[in-house]
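Why show two proteins at once? Because comparison is the fastest way to build intuition. When a single record is shown, students tend to memorize it. When two are placed side by side, the eye starts asking what differs. So, the first record is below.
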Amino acid sequence: MEKFQMMLDQFLKHHSALSYGLVTLLTAGGERIFSSVVFACPCSAAWNLSYGLVFLLVPALALFLLGYMLSARTWRLLTGCCAPGARARCGSGLSGVLVCTHVSAAAALAPLTWVAVALLGGAFYECAASGSPFFAERLCLDSEECKAQLPLVPCGQAGSPKVQDLLKMLKAQSQVLGWILIAVVITVLLVFTAVTRCLSPVSFLQLKFWKIYLEQEQQILKTQATEHATELAKENIKCFFECSRSKEYSTPSMKDWQQISSLYKFNPNNQYYSMLHKYVNRKDMSHSIKSSEGDAFVPILGFVDSPGIDTVAEL
């Protein structure tokens, strides 16, 4: 039991890194299954290009949109912002751009993994390139026979051995592009992480403490919310069956829920660790905490908005 608890603690401690690793592995595994089981190049001049591009790019687009759907920050930003009479806005100016950029960067992990693994495998690229007039002009030069047989190359049906040998060139191009994409992504990720860390308004150890605080806050919030909701439901059901009036329960107002659900902005004058922390420490009970002078979005503090009550956004 102690070993299980130790493993659970380690998972909770590194759940973000493990989640990204799991997403990467599942995406890579899914691409391998698609390329070996589902994908079958039609070897047709009319279909090769579109068929190959669909398998290369459409799953990547679907994974990108899924990343947006699973991001808690997306729903924190959008929920209620289009309701009639709502004061919240869907993000504007620099703050909106920063939030969208951060969410997009996180959502791009799975699609970039798909494209990189697909390019290293080469099947999708070979099929698409063999049906492209652009590649036909450069691979076959002025040979009309080569251009006619090029779409048959992915299936190994080209009549000329020289034309069939072009498959090796297409595979090499695909793999080179795959490694270039991997190198570019790692470089951009390293530079972005280094810059955000360098511009961090808080120290390394305070950042660690901050993440621990958020884990505890969300865990306690979920427990307290479950208990409060259960008691309220029990009282309402009891009064329904007994045909009596319920006793008064104190619950946060809609305005209170909206304020603690808004996106977090850092203020060096008041270093609150979450919107809930900022809410309970407000000086004026009627004052809005959504925005005040000195507030700003800080990329490295994007993790503050990531967890919900269940740490994963529920649709």
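Second record. Ask yourself what differs from the first in the token line.
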Amino acid sequence: MALGGAAAATAAATAAAPDTAAAATLPRYRRPRLRFGRDGRFTIVQFNDTQDDERIDRRTLELMDAVLDDQRPDLVILNGDNLTGGCDTAREVHQAMNNVVQPMESRGIPWAVTFGNHDEDNLHLNDVDEAQMLAFYRSYEHNVNVATAPGVTGQGNSQFLIDGTNGRPAFNIWLLDSGRYAPETLAGQDFEGYPTWDWLRGDQVSWYFRTSEALERRHRRKIPSLMFIHIPLWEYRFMWFGSVDGRTDADHARGAERHGIVGERNEDECPGPFNSGMFSAIQHRGDVKGVFCGHDHVNTYVGDYYGVLLGYAGNTGFGTYGLSGDERNRLRGARVYTLDERADGVLTDTFMVFAADYGIDLTADDQSIDPLPLPRG
């Protein structure tokens, strides 16, 4: 098993959380150029919820390595909960982040991250917040995250274009920070009885809408795109049941037929207490072809909800919760996207691949390893 060696001239290995001055000293590279191949094709792999501390389960890396070698993607998205609350020091945070980026760094594959609800779980101990994490991720040679949109809630809200074979933009990637947890109170009221996850805020929805319009004006057409967020939208549940209020098998049968749903749903969707309105904005603009999340580890379904794919990427990390009993690790996997610039909408297919496809040990136990070496900065 190849665990992914450290790439030369990558991130600084610091034993303390980088403050503003320290972050400014991290290496900076010219962003890798993203472009469709000569055959007009482009492949994206999404890893979700690697979610481990500095002593990662070896099978998480084995799975990432196997998927990368099999699918040979042009871009990888680490879509939130990249680490968990077990990191008690800044060095352990850096080691946990480094573990999950080395499979791409060692292969020279461009990659980007979003944040989930667990990335800052031990902030009170390690003092490394998401802004500092983003600076650390961006210090790697093959990272393609751009600076977070100024004045917008969260970290890493951004978009970047993928050029076609003619050198003009053919596809766009949206990355949004879906937040962590709802506050204890809002306007003097608590959230008892409501979901206590976070939600996309109005300024994020507005930023997407305005930026989408600006891209259309600049390029004189809408650029087809995918959006990656960690926490699902409420519309995922509506789609699954073909209803807002119904929760019966008959409701799901109607939703599955109407929306062409494939994949598994083994736990309730866990959105926040408010519907952000992002889906309405997306459907109105018509450029986003799919919204994909993680968060709910044992859901892998995808469907077409009124012209927009809504889907899960399952869960990559073996160190997190999964199914019950001996089936705990059955759904560890990744989602793959195939793009063809000659096709209408560009996105031509998406599918899941699983650890079982690669003969990886699915035993329901812990197989943690020592941290991968931090690269020399």
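One difference worth noting in the second protein: Confidence is low (pLDDT under 50) at residues 1-24.
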